[in-house]
Amino acid sequence: MNxxxxxxxxxxxxxxxxxxxxxxxxxxxxxxxxDDGLIIVTVEDTDAVASGDTMVKMNLLEGVxxxxxxxxxxxxxxxxxxxxxxxxx
Length: 89
What we know:
Layout: E1 2-10, H1 15-24, E2 28-33, E3 38-44, H2 51-60, E4 64-74
Antiparallel strand pairs: 1-3, 1-4, 2-3
């Protein structure tokens, strides 16, 4: 599991469009926006895209001034919970 908290600063007049574009990125969830262009999001790895690649795409969106990592949590995926799943017979 790889979860990151990101603060996106957008041009205030572009915030609705930036929010919509962020919501279209895989693994991104928008939590809050402000009138002055700040957008709080979380990013999780997906099977198809690493969160780091998603954060690079955030910085390239039209209207984004910056996207800054403010929190990161990583832990290995839990082992398969099925009995004897990791052993061979």
